[in-house]
From TrEMBL:
Residues 103-263 form the CRAL-TRIO domain. PANTHER family: BINDING PROTEIN, PUTATIVE-RELATED, OS03G0850700 PROTEIN. Residues 1-37 are annotated as: Disordered. SUPFAM superfamilies: CRAL/TRIO domain, CRAL/TRIO N-terminal domain. Residues 1-21 have a biased composition (Polar residues). CDD domains: SEC14. This is CRAL-TRIO domain-containing protein.
Length: 267
């Protein structure tokens, strides 16, 4: 964070009375009730918004929900959330200059026919399904564009009032030819740093033993909030586990449900 923004942040803090600061700290430590927590969040959203606009007036269209997601991703720490949000906004301006990724920019990844979006879980979250054994490493830049394209598609399908999605990663048939650690880490970085608080739950199914070698390399880079959302499902409990969160009418046919999967590019 620049020294200018640090001074602006300090000015917000100085503007609060000592008793207010102590109360906020005490409330956070004592897990405030919903009403107080909402008030604290809303106050911090206002601070972050002012600091973002002070940094770059062109970022004036950032909405409250986005700011709140970045705050929650950093446990309501204003300085950390602001740094994360500014990094994202600058990345978006540079990496997605047209505001979207075109299918023509990711032909190799789309040709693998590995990612689909269809249905909603019981809370209304859209469902994404990836077949990992269809993945072959492309250039890291193309794969980053593919991940961004996919996440934008998923977010666009979220019903009003929803900010998260559910994902199913099917690893049946996965082997070393599919192992793409650089690509996996790039995807993880984009998800965590650029789309925080978007993943609601990730079911990893049909896990081959060989995959755990790659998992051990990836796991240290997964933040604590994301780790809580990952569920490895036993084969014998596959359908019963998925049906706890997804109605059979919304479950893909591949997993015993009734929906036909739709490729991400056709959504």
């Amino acid at each position: 964070m620049t020294s200018y923004l640090r001074q602006k942040l300090q000015s917000f803090q100085i503007g609060s009375s000592p008793s207010d600061s102590e109360n906020v700290k005490q409330e956070e430590e004592e897990e405030p009730n919903c009403e107080n927590r909402d008030e604290i969040e809303q106050s911090k959203i206002g601070i972050v918004r002012a600091l973002v606009q002070a940094h770059d007036p062109s970022f004036k269209d950032v909405d409250d929900l986005m700011i709140r997601r970045f705050l929650r991703a950093r446990d309501l720490d204003v300085e950390k959330a602001l740094s994360m949000l500014l990094k994202y906004l600058n990345w978006r301006k540079e990496f997605v200059p047209n505001g979207f990724i075109s299918p023509s920019e990711i032909p190799n990844d789309l040709a693998q026919n590995k990612l689909f979006i269809q249905g909603h879980d019981k809370t209304g979250r859209p469902i994404a399904v990836v077949f990992a054994a269809r993945h072959r490493a492309t250039s890291v830049d193309e794969f980053k564009r593919f991940v961004t394209f996919t996440l934008d598609k998923i977010c666009a399908r979220m019903p009003s009032g929803h900010e998260k999605f559910t994902a199913i990663a099917d690893l049946e048939g996965w082997g070393y030819v599919n192992s793409d650690i650089r690509g996996y880490l790039a995807a993880l970085s984009i998800l965590q740093d650029c789309y925080p608080e978007r993943l609601g739950k990730l079911f990893i199914i049909h896990v081959p033993y060989i995959f755990m070698t790659a998992w051990k390399m990836i796991y240290p880079f997964i933040d604590k909030n994301t780790k809580k959302k990952i569920i490895f499902v036993e084969n014998k409990k596959l359908q019963s586990t998925l049906l706890q969160d997804i109605d059979v009418s919304q479950l893909p046919e591949a997993f015993g449900g009734k929906l036909t999967l739709v490729p991400v590019q056709d959504c």
